[in-house]
Amino acid sequence: MSAPLEIAGLRVGFATEDGLVQAVDGVDLELRAGEVLALVGESGSGKSVTAQTAIGLTGAAGVRIEGSVRLGGEELLGADEEVLRGVRGERIAMVFQDPMTSFNPVYRLGAQVAEAILAHRPRTSKAEARAQVVELFGAVGIPDPERRVDSYPHEFSGGMRQRAMIAMALALEPEVLIADEPTTALDVTVQAQILELLGRLNRERGLATLLITHDFGVVAEVADRVAVMYAGRVVEEGTLDEIFYDPQHPYTWGLLGSTVRLDRERPRRLPQIGGAPPSLLELPPGCAFRERCPHAFASCGEMPPLAARLTDEPGHRDRCWLEPAAKRERRQVEGRIGLEAPGR
Amino acid sequence: MTDAPLLEVTDLVKHFPVRRGVLRDREVDRVRAVDGISFSLPPGQTLGLVGESGSGKSTACRAVLQLLRPTSGSVRFEGREIAGLRRRAMRPLRRQMQMVFQDPQASLNPRRRIGQIVADPLRRQGIGSGGERRRRVEEMLERVGLETAHRQRYPHELSGGQRQRVGIARALILEPKLVVADEPVSALDVSIQAQIVNLLADLQEQLGLTYLFVAHDIGVVRHVADRIAVMHEGRIVEQGDADQICERPADPYTKQLLASVPIPDPRRARAR
Prior knowledge:
heterodimer; A: 344 residues; alpha/beta; eight-stranded mixed sheet; 12 helices; 32% helix; B: 272 residues; four-stranded antiparallel sheet; 26% strand
C-alpha cells in the first residue's frame, strides 16, 4: 500500500524581478499513516512552500513546480482544479498559524464548518451537518458545543478559534492533516493544550500529520519523525530520538544548540549559528550551509546527497560529507550538542 | 544590594476607561491593564518582565517610560519622580531611557537609510555636528555587529537579525542608562535570536546598561535576566531571582506557565 503522502523530487521556484527564487530545491518526503512528521526549519527554509504545494496552493503565474506529490498513490501535481477541489478538505486538510484570518468574521463558526461539509457531501441535510459540527466541536474540546457553534469568530479566544479550525480540518475525515505552525500565534499555556489535542487526534483517527514548525520544543512534544530543512532542501531526516540524540548534520547541531533550555542550567552565552541563511536567488553549488559551518572542508563544494550513512540507523539520512565518527566527536561542544562554542 | 535603584516603580496603575454615551462622557467600565505593580531595578542589572498576551506587560513598559500617562503610582528614575511629567519636562530624560521594539520591520522607516535612522535621535536632541554624528553612527553600527557600509542601505535590504541590530543601535546612540526591550527577539529565527541575546549581553557589559526585558518566552527571559517578575492580569504575581523563579516557583500561575513550556528533549517530554 502506498503512503498517504509521498513527495518526490519537489522543486518550487518563484519568478521575481531579481530572478528565480528556488524556494524548494529537490525535496523527498514520505508521510506514513498514523505518524506525525515534523518539518523543521527557519524562515525561508522552504517548509511552508513544500506544504502549500502539496495541497495545491502555490499554482499561480510565475511559479515553477517540478516533481511529484502523491496522495495515496494518486498524483496531485498537474491534476485538474476539479480533482484538486475534491481532494482538498476531503482527503488532505490544512490548519494554519492564524485562525483569525482563516475564518470569515461575519458568519457563525458552526455555519462555516457546516458549509464545508455540505459543499462536499451535498446529500447531507442542514440539520445533519449541524449535528456533525456539534460533535466535532465536542471532539476538539470546545466546551458547550451545542451553543458555541452559533458563535462568531471574534467571540472565541485564540486557542478556541484554533480548535474550531482543527474541527473544520477534520470535518470530512481526511487521511492527511497539514498543520503549519499551528501554535505559533498562541500563548504557551494554550499551546500545550493544542499540541495535546493534535497528538490525541492523530492517534485516535490514524491521521498522517505533517507538522510544520520552527520550535524544537514543539517537535519533542508531538512528533514521531523529523525532517530538518535548510535553503530549500531536507538536510537531515530521522526518528525523534535519532534527531535529538544522534544528529548528523551541523545545521541540526546548531539549531539544537541555540534552543533555550529551561531544563538545564543556563550557559553564560547562548550558542549561536553565525551569519544568516543564504539568498535563494543564486545558491552557490555545494552544501548551502557551508558558509556558516565551522566544519566545512574541500568536499563541501559538492552537494552531498540525502543518504543513510549509519548502518544501525537505516532510516536516518543526512546531507553531510563528514564521517559519522567525526560528527559524533565534533558535535560535542562543552559536553552538549552544538555547532561551536559560544565565542565572543 | 547597596546600590540605589536606577528605576523604582511603586503601585503603578494604568487603567483604560470604557466610555459610552453620545459624548463618550459616561465611564461604564475600566480595563485594568496594569493594576498596581511595584519593582525596583538596580543599575547594570536586568529585570525580565514575563507574561502572556493581555497580561499588561507592554502597557507597563509604556507607562514606565511615560509614553502612556499612568493612572496612578510612582515611577522614580535615579530617585526623581517622573510619573505624570509633561512632554517637555520628559525630553531631556528621554536620552537616558530608550526602547527596543519587537518588530524591526515595522519600527524602522522604510524610506530612510540606516545611517539616517540611527542618527535621528542625535539630530532630535541637537547633539553634534554632521560629521560628528556620522562618526558616532559608524562607531555604533560596528558596535552592534554591522558594517559602516550599512549606513547607505535601506531597511528592506537587511535581514531580520540585521534590522534588529539597527533598532538596538538607534536605541543606544544617545548613550542611555536604561533600555526597555519589548519582545526584542520574538520575531526572529532561533539561530538569530541567540545572536541578538548575546549581543544585548555584550553591550550591557561594555556600556554598563540596565535592562527592562519584556517577553512572553520565559526561557529567553531566564537566560538574560538577573531577576524575573511574572505578570498576569495586570499584576505581578511573583518576582525574584531568575533561576529561583524557574526552579522553585511559588505562585500557581508561574507553575502553570513553566509546566506549559515544551521541553526540547523527547525522553523528558515523554516522562512528563
